[in-house]
Records
---
Amino acid sequence: MDKSVTQKTIVIKPGRSMKHYWKDLWNYRELFIFLAWRDILVRYKQTIMGVAWAVIRPVLTMVVFTVIFGNIAKLPSGGVPYPILVFVGMLPWQFFSSSISLSSGSLVSNAQLITKVYFPRLIIPTSGVIVGMIDFFVSFFILVGLMVWYHFVPSWLIITLPFFMLLAFVAALGAGLWFCPLNVRYRDFGYVIPFIVQFGLYVSPVGFSSNIIPVKWRLLYSINPMVGVIDGFRWAILGGENGLYLPGFFLSIVLTLIIFISGIWYFRKSESKFADII
Amino acid sequence: MASAIEIEGLEKRYIIEHNLQRGDISFREEIVNAFKRVGEKIFRPFARHRSNQPQNKEEFWALKNISLKISPGERVGIIGRNGAGKTTLLKILSRITEPTGGRVTIKGRVASLLEVGTGFHGDLTGRENIFLNGAILGMSRAEIKKKFDEIVDFAEVEKFLDTPVKRYSSGMYVRLAFAVAAHLEPEILLVDEVLAVGDLGFQKKCLGKMEGVSKSGRTILFVSHQMGHIATLCSRCLFLQQGKLILDGPTQSVISAYLDSLKDAQFASLRDRKDRQGTGQIRVVDTWIEDESGNRVQHVFSGSRIKFVVKFERMTTGKLSNVLFSLGINSSQGVWTTDFATNFINKNVTINSRDGQAECIIPKLSINYGSYTYNVMVRSGNSGFEIFDFVKDVYAFTVEPGDYYGSGYVTRGQNVLAMDHDWGINEE
């Protein structure tokens, strides 16, 4: 431990906790890594069930959506095998939905930590999103397998995928940051989240391509930030056929950023009270 | 020399909302209320805003105007009854909760140990938990790695390092948790009552370790009910009472002032005590000890017949069956001495009227010497064992040696217990 760290001075005053927050967040990066590591470890500890869960859920959903939307409703897929179309949409959606469920409940499930030790609380919901990300990578391997099976070669645009991944991350964390404090304050808020997740699945273009939405409605449709993310994924992996609808895409980005920044603001505002009301 | 900790006019206020359990508000209620307010605005736009909510909020000052300075390397004990604000003070210093007023300046790295094994996860192995817990307590990965073997040695769990801690015995679990905490090396260490668990030998080991830590120039703030521990470890002591700093000075004199205050009947009237748990269906409003002739006493003699009286009131009428009363006796050193409870002797209690008193008769007191306090608990004997009322340290009394054996002999030593016994001599 070097002297510069040990000799730091902390001033505690009402409303003062804000001042060194971002620096603190950096100082506590190891704790962040440990907490994320713990969550992942616990999730995958009973290895068979852990991994199986991350595989079974998306695969079954994919099968159902392919049958309903592709085979029964016969929606267009733009020349791409329907299962792949669905699966590429489901990757970000699954990431988004599991991340917000994990992160919004994370404060309450870590109540014991919050009342006994100090650290920037932002660490906890963020670590929830990281766990969602691991599930995402597991599912990604299924996608690769699916592509091999259908002899489908992704377009070179796939190099832009990290950007859309980041967008999905920001959207999930933004939503999680909003739900976290609400979950602490109102214990029955926990019932709202599964509903949002369920509802979101049907209003987002997971089972179908958003190209089937009439053009005049597409901007309105893009108010759902996940529309931009999912379209982005399809564009990056499946290529030009599923062209991006740019006005809608930018609207999604702007809304995502608004949710994220306001989420941080709201979380920070409620943070100092967590230990007292949790 | 600059202070390690400087506290000026520190205050903390909690708002207690009476009608709501634990301050929970449901989201549904809030939405309904919001619609009601909007509706009212629309239909009666000029009506004065009614503050019609019954005033069920109450302020509670957990800390009031605390000012003090602590120099680097000082070992300071904090004592006081439950609810005096000791833990709140530590929580503010460790930045878990924000103060309502005042200011604290801390120089140096702070680690707080408010609970043993914070963040331990049952499904993770001992090894994993050491790393996790260390990180939570503020150690870096490099630090933990460096001390890993030392921690394992200290905890004596080497064989079980790769076993999930949920399979540990409770003793092993506590030892491991302690061991991690004991190897913290911050400039300032805040410790709350954590030594109360664990077996005696291990407690000693930990105290020794902490003493070693403080010898290397580290500042320690130590909350405990074990006066013995405070006396061993601390040179200076703070006495808090109802959120105020009553006394600040050398440990011995502060401890004896605190013990005196326990003996004083200066307790807040039991009826007004806020630091109680339970639903309040039955409330203990007064309690005392009577001697053989029915006088209320605070000094009793070993071997004498005494009676603990607990006066209670109920909020509701009607028959309330299967009620359990219990008294827990604690010595002033914080040792849990004994319990008296209705269910120990299969006494079935049914209460019909709104108030009454429970009496516990000790035919022959076998405590020989010392200062004691007791806790009262009233709860349901039905499944769930719902607590109606639980208040700690409701009354203090001292025991003096008496004619326990009925032989006229009164012990002169300060031995704690007297026990009936007989002797026989067998000669060849």
---
Amino acid sequence: MRRVAIVGAGMTRFVRRAQETGKELAWEASSKALESCDQTLSDIDCVVVGTAPEAFDGVHMKGEYLSDGSGAWRKPLMRGYVGGGTGVFAPLQGWYHIASGLFDTCLVVCEEKMSSCQPHPQGAFLTIFDNMTERQLQPNLLWIFALEMNAYMSRYGLSKRDIALVSVKNKRNAALHPAALLGDANITVDDVLASETLAWPVQRLDVSPVTDGAVALVLAAEPVARRITDSPVWIEGVGWNLDTAYWTNRDLSYPTYVEEAARMAYKMAGITEPRKQIHIAEPYDPFDYKELHHLEGLMLFDKGQAPEATALGITQRDGDLPVCPSGGLLGVGNPIAAAGLMKVAELFWQLRGEAGARQIPGNPRRGVAQAWGDLMQVGTVIVVGL
Amino acid sequence: MNRQVAIIGVGWSGYHSISPDLSYKELMFEAATKAYADAGIDPRNDVDGFVTTAEDMHEGTSIFDEYVPDQLGAVQRPVHTIAGDGLHGLAAAYMQIASGLMDIVVLEAHSKASNILTLSYITAFAMDPILNRPLQAHPYFIAGMEMNRFMAETGTTVEECAYVSAKNKRNAMLNPLAAFPAHIGPDEVLLSEPVAEPLTRLQIAPHADGAIVFVLADDQTAQDLSDTPIWIRGLGWCNDTPSLESRPWGYPAYAELAAEMAYRTAGIRSPRMEIDFAEIDDTFAFKELQHLEALGLCDRGQAGVWTTTGGTELTGEFPVNPSGGCLGCGQLLDASGLARALEVVLQLRGQSGKRQLGNVTTGLAFAWRGVPTTAGAAAILASER
């Protein structure tokens, strides 16, 4: 298989309400990614755009709208989406563009502007439900994720306090991220437990915030990557998996689709013992319980054991397996597709030792990032290494 | 191109002007079932990945990819959706196989246009929200202006454009899939009511419902499973600017660039000599002519004369849209380009019935995503490698 590397990364600040249009956010992230590896648009063969859903800014065919801001003027452009999993799916798509042999370089751009959805972007999520069977109930995402969080807590006898530790860890990590929206070095578990209840057991500080932002990566085929940089970060494994739309019929306490996606990526990367062979993880954490859920789906901890590992500090930045050293979605922010790609960018910076104050100790050589989305339904996984 | 990829199964549902008796899931299920039977595969065991193409606002559902796995037999498998035409989806499926990651990939695209009560208002949401949407213009004004500019730059006449409608609707009479076949002449096309001058009603492809599924496989698998694999020899896709203010109005650069990539990947130097026929986007009648020229199949300004002198008829030297095109079959939203590719596959297999062309081994399918976009995609398919 043709080897593909990440050679550059850039991102905008993640903010509550950007003054820029979506196009401008995409342009800023793309420009920074290109500058980070001394490339220009003329070096780019094709562009992959990730953004979803369109209801946030009400732009139909949003990939076409974003195309010029993403550098796709007179270039092949493709936009794929798998809901919230899009941010980690986009670099997988960039990978297959290059691995197919059709292209040597690819600019991967993920943008989300949620703030233009008024009065609140949760309104856009009313339209993700089945128009025959569910939409009449007017469910929103907080509502169904509360069901999932409950299922997870009752299955393993977990308390709110066990789960709030994740929110505290990630928001504290994010305090060192220059692009973060909700970093807080002094937050405590009691703050999380005292925050406003949204849909029990979900409270405000269990959830990532509404955010605007964009992230971009530059990918290149092996010989090109080696010309561009001395320390390319190779894409070693890719995996994605979509479960049934009938989410009401599933066991919500375990994300089987994440496990299937992880197995696909690990197999390609030749990983047989993920707990030993992976040094850093960026699982998707739009809610604090989701980080735990996904760590188990990624087979980095046994089922029901991720909360204890968190309590023991194993997932801290200086722990045995640093998890979300970026600060994750809970701390940096959650502009849906861009948030997933931010996780891949974090692995890129961490593995190259460029993460500044957030740098984890011990020269990590391999990391995994994962995103999740749709109706608690899709897992997207990427394994990258030096 | 590296690892070779072939189409080993095709299936379809439709096309219908309306389909109140069927949901999009039933359309997809019917097309998928036919394609799996055609390829001789079991989706739950044999398929490595699935690709669908859909736009949220055409579906009325945000992040529509949620609702694709069940009716395709794709639950708990690698599935993703492309917000593009079916031919962009074909490229996505191709790349997953060519990379060596997968051996068999299923591609699906569909249209349930009849569910959309206010399609022109939906299309208007694709215009720039700050610069263009406040004009509150019907999006077809863009097509009317492009047509005017095209005619001014090339000397093409409105009669020549009308001839395209008549030809394609006539071809559609021989196609049982077609939703809008008709025996009409160019005069009737010109006499239909004006929509956006100089476009008249019968120069605009009406929308239709339908679903199309392809099964793709790598070289070895294709030869094991199929007696008539249709090879993907070349692929290309490209965007020009989305901005109305800075695009070339008379010339579809997106088509030229997409074709350039497709010819390059297929190793084709003189397309008119090496390709036997084409299925080309004709959402608006003039687009067939404009695309023919940009695809390098005839000189600029010559497509109109070529068409009216019979060169692109079923019996002509280079048949264009033997299926009836979008004008005859119906415009299938995000499946429109895949419908073009379906006809190329059927022609190359010799399964096109009364409209079958003689001695064809290589065909071109070209898709455009419609106003206000400048997105084009091309595929070159062949019965021999």
